[in-house]
Amino acid sequence: MLSIIVPVLNEAGTIKILLDHLITHCNPANISEIIMVDGGSEDDTIEQVAYAANRYTDVAIRVISSAKGRAKQMNAGAAIAVGNVLYFLHADSFPPAYFDRFIVETVKNDNSAGCFCMRFDSKHWWLRLVSWFTQFDWRACRGGDQSLFITKVLFEEIGGYDETYIIYEDNILIDELYARNTFTVIPHWLTTSARLYERKGVWHVQYHFLKIYFKKWQGADANELYAYYNAQIRQNGKPEDQKSARTTKPITEHSRY
Question: How far is residue 53 from each of residues 49, 114, 223, measured CA to CA in Å?
């Protein structure tokens, strides 16, 4: 049984779309619960989740509050999860139809952790190219936008997400899984939003994400990575970046390359 854990912060514009997608693309018998972990939203994210919870009664949907920060939020969700498999999902990433069945079958085949292949909801040639590489089981091709399933036993054995990391927290956990030779890529495609690339510029974001990757490889700590992210990605980019950081176009199962 899966516990789906989604960290959220001011996602009122899309969270209902995500919940609709999850409920209509799974077998509720495989889902213990959907836990939305709110990091202090100032919009009506919580109200949107409550609306979905009242609409869909086959799956338990609940909201809990946590300190802001994806690592802290995901750990908070995992701490109360009742499923034996945890499925961590970003609020703007939409897993494939039958995602629950694929995960359950993969775990039954002695795979304790892994992700889906990933594509962006963008036709930009570079984003299509980097998406294509996510089908390969290479460490360099991994990231949090691809989602992550992991048995609760293994998650607790590792110690969960490292909360000292404000960014790059997904990669720290993935590093642990690759070090244990415990990771598999399910050959089905998840679709994620390219909203950050669209706001900041594809080359700007890609360059600085690569810089963050290499800084970590060279020994940079959590504070250095966060400072670099704030200076180069959060603050800089194209002029239209001053618009809301939470606007995005809906993603549907018909999103394609």
Answer: 6, 28, 38
Could you read off the pLDDT of 23-51 as tens digits, one per residue?
999 999 999 999 999 999 999 999 999 99
pLDDT tens-digit series, residues 59-80: 999 999 999 999 999 999 999 9
Q: Tokens for 160?
A: 């969960």
Provide the phi-psi class of 221: left if phi over 0, else alpha when psi is between -120 and 50, else beta: beta
* Residues in Cβ contact with 242 at an 8 Å cutoff, skipping those fewer than 6 apart: none
Q: Which of 176, 160, 161, 166 lies closest to 222, judged by CA?
A: 166
Global pTM value: 0.90
Contact 90/218 with Cβ under 8 angstroms? no
Secondary structure class of 170 (helix, strand, coil): helix
How far is the C-alpha of 5 from the C-alpha of 68, rounded, in Å? 15
Rounded to 5 degrees, φ, ψ at 120 are -90, 155
3-state secondary structure of 203: helix
Q: Which amino acid is at 153?
A: V
Query: Which CA distances in Å does 65 have to 4, 41, 89, 112, 214?
Result: 16, 9, 17, 28, 34
List the structure tokens of 34.
């959907």
Which residues, listed in sequence order, are joined to residue 190 by a DSSP beta bridge? 118
Instruction: Render 43-101 in DSSP notation, one character per residue.
Output: SSHHHHHHHHHHH--SS-EEEEE--SSHHHHHHHHHHH--SSEEEE--TTEEPPTTHHH
